[in-house]
Amino acid sequence: MNQENLIRLKDFSSDLGSTLKTLMRIPFMWRPADKFPPSHHQEAVILGNGPSLRNFLPNHQDFLKNKDVWAVNLFSTTPWFEKIKPAKYVVSAPEYWLDEVEEDFQKWRTDLFSSLAEKTRWPMDFFIPVAAKGKGDWQKMLDNNKHIRIIFYNTMPVEGFKWFRYALYDRKFGMPRPHNVMIPSLMNAILSGYEKIYVTGIDHDWLQYLSVQEDNTVYLIQKHFYDEEGNLKPAVMKKMGKGQRKMHEILEKFYYSFRAYHEIAAYSTHKNTRIYNITPGSMVDAFERMKLK
User: Fold this and answer.
1) Mutual orientation of helices 182-191 and 247-270 as an angle, nearest 10°?
2) Residue 152, SS3?
3) Which of 238, 251, 247, 241 has its CA nearest to residue 216?
């Protein structure tokens, strides 16, 4: 057997194994997802929370007109939330509903849901994994705000043959491994039927901010557009709101995120959706670049 056939056989075996693993996950991880509401416009802008958003928001508000704006994570805790009035909002991290998380995560989620409940005075769809249903007190906080419609979606990792993955994506069974909130944001936006999706604030330049101390603790500075300059300190990256990740675990998380973007780019082409990365200096290499004036 020649080298080319060996590679094909290896790829087939890998896809077959991944397909079988995904099938085994379905009884344990899949739950019925909500029907996604129709989009208000043909184009959407997804606002990541990277530091480049600090320049985007004051200089490109006109670009957001006649587009659905999607926000993520702690955007609601900033003054920009009430100025931009996003139509869609996405969270995905289990730390937002798990009981046993450390104090900093408890504060973040309290800030998130209280600000959403208090500030939202326009119709907004709030996307959260179906795994969060009935967990914690977040839903009670949002149920009191009649402007917010809760949409449950599946985050089950889907892997395997392309035809198999796309069939499950279309049915909202799951998505590429959601190691970053931008992954479900992009997938949910594609499945909402937009013709064009623009992503900004996805700097993803984490590698330059990794360090290892003499006690072998791995630290990372995670920069967000709402952080105060000078107050950023290296911190451990936690897993499920507890402990600390080792270097290989952090790099694995990055690997799955960047790989997912390429899978999403291919799927968006299949769905006739164009994705444009309008983030200056972004390290994401999966989407077509567009530079705003």
Assistant:
1) 10
2) strand
3) 247
d(Cα 74, Cα 191) in Å, to the nearest integer? 23
Ordered by start, the domain boundaries in the chain are: 3-289
CA triple 163-35-157, angle to 5 deg? 40
Is residue 230 pLDDT above 60, yes or no?
A: no
Whether 293 and 216 have beta carbons less than 8 Å apart is answered as no
Name the phi and psi angles at 113, rounded to 5.
-75, -35
DSSP 8-state secondary structure symbol assigned to residue 2 = -
Confidence band (pLDDT; 50, 70, 90) for 142?
Answer: very high
Q: Do 148 and 116 touch, CB atoms closer than 8 A?
A: yes
Write phi, then psi, for 283 (nearest 5 degrees).
Answer: -90, 0
Give residues with Cβ within 8 angstroms of 48, minimum separation 6.
Answer: 72, 182, 199, 200, 201, 202, 203, 279
**Tens digits of residue pLDDT in 63-94:** 999 999 999 999 999 999 999 999 999 999 99
pLDDT range class, residue 1, cuts 50, 70, 90: low
Sort strands 218-220 and 210-212 into parallel, antiparallel or unpaired. antiparallel
Which of the four pLDDT bands, split at 50, 70 and 90, describes residue 172? very high
Can you give the pTM of this predicted structure? 0.94
Q: Give the dihedral sign, CA 253/258/262/267.
A: positive
- The pairing of strands 88-90 and 68-72 is parallel
Per-residue confidence (pLDDT) for residue 192, from 0 to 100: 96
For the chain, give the number of residues.
293
Under CATH, which number does the domain 3-289 receive?
3.90.1480
Greatest Cα-to-Cα distance within the chain, rounded to the nearest angstrom: 66
